[in-house]
Structures are given as C-alpha cells and as structure tokens.
Specification:
With 237 residues, this protein is mainly alpha-helical. It has eight helices and five strands.
Length: 237
C-alpha cells in the first residue's frame, strides 16, 4: 500500500484513513482482548479511540468518493477542503462530528455509485444489516464526540452509567447478595458513627458493556472497507 510510505498530506484522502487506523490500533493496544474495566472507567479512552476511528473512516470514504469521481463539495471543487452534505447544507469536516450524518452521506455515495462499483471492482460492497443498528447506537450514545472524553456532558443519565459502580440502597445490596446466580459482590458500604447503613456503591459487572462491543465491531468493519476503497478506488494511495 503506497500510502503507508507517504506523509499524510500526500494521501489520496488527505490522511483521514491512516489516522483512523492509528486510533483503532491504539484502542487495540489498550484493550487487546476487548475487555476493559468499567469500574475505573478505562473503557472511556478505549471507546473514544474507536469512536474517533469510526468518524475518520467515514470521512475518509467521503473524500475518496469525491476525489475519485471528481465530485464537487457543494460549489467547491473536489480537491478543496473536504465537506459533508447535511440537511442544513454543506459543512466542513471540522464542524461535523455526528456519526449518523457522516454515515448517511457515506451510504448515499455508495448507493449513487453502485453500478460503477459492481462493474469495475472485485469487492462486494454489501454491508451487514447490523451496521445501521451499530451506527444508530453510537450516534445515540455520543452524538458530539464528547461523551467518552469528559466525566460530565449534557447527557446526565448517560454520565451516571459511565462508571461500573452504582449507588444502591441497603435493600438493593441485600437483594444482590441473595441472588443465587450472583458472583461475589464487590461493594463499598458507608455507615454513620453508630454503624448504621447510610449508602453503598456496588460494582455492576453485568451491564453497560454493550456499546464497547458495538464500537469495536464498527471500527473493525469500517477498517476493512477503508482498505478495499484504497485498493479499488485510490490505487493504493
């Protein structure tokens, strides 16, 4: 692959794809088995890396289509600053971080060029139905590319789920302990000066990891698509 031996600004897609691969590989190094602790929120930087890789892979695809087929970015030429078409008009890449917006236009470009792709490439460009669901889940969990980067965002309910430790009443702790299928419970219990229960925080190891899997699978799939686009539409550059 020629682009691997070239500086980013010389890449056919201005380096978006290679940078996406770098973020994906960084995530894989932090969590090589895909399993990260939600107790101490190590999953947040891993998820951010996968989420950002996904954004960059989509942007890379948009650029490759526009430059391969000399499609203008609105009124600007195909080799100008990359943009994406939204319901509010053409927006520069640096102002658009919504995964759903990028994905919608990315899929539109594939649909528009379906005949060319089927007749002139050897790759099957059929995507699994789950991809639509994965993109929707990512967009819902982190629409502005801030959720995994900050402890507090506009999504208060979501913020409360970032940590694996959950606040619980005494009754809820007892119920967790008495569950016959329960693993040993890890809990931090706070008592007053008279040894009376005040509050508790227990480690919920059974929920919250769904988005971790979705992000990893989405980035992995788009990485494969990016590779194919490099070969088929960009000549390896």
């Amino acid at each position: 692959m020629h682009y691997m031996l070239m500086p980013l600004h010389k890449h056919f897609d201005s380096g978006f794809g290679a940078t996406a691969e770098a973020f994906k590989k960084a995530a894989e190094k932090l969590a090589p088995d895909g399993d990260v602790s939600r107790a101490f929120v190590e999953h947040l930087p891993v998820n951010f890396l996968y989420r950002h890789a996904t954004e960059l892979f989509l942007k890379s695809g948009v650029v490759i289509f526009h430059r391969r087929f000399k499609l203008p970015f609105g009124t600007e030429p195909h080799n100008s600053e990359p943009m994406v078409r939204t319901d509010k008009g053409w927006k520069p890449f640096h102002t658009v971080h919504r995964i759903a917006l990028l994905y919608s236009y990315w899929r539109e470009l594939f649909a528009t060029h379906r005949d060319f792709l089927s007749q002139n490439t050897s790759t099957s460009w059929e995507f699994p139905l789950e991809l639509d669901e994965w993109i929707a889940a990512i967009d819902k969990s982190d629409p502005g590319s801030t959720f995994f980067r900050y402890p507090i965002t506009k999504d208060k309910t979501g913020d409360e789920q970032k940590s694996g430790f959950k606040e619980a009443t005494q009754e809820e702790i007892v119920a967790q302990i008495e569950r016959p299928d329960r693993k040993p419970l890890k809990a931090f219990i706070i008592e007053d000066d008279n040894d009376q229960f005040m509050t508790a925080y227990y480690l919920d190891e059974e929920s919250g990891g769904e988005i971790d899997v979705v992000l990893r699978k989405t980035a992995g799939l788009l990485s494969a698509v990016h590779f194919a686009m490099r070969i088929e539409l960009a000549g390896g550059f």
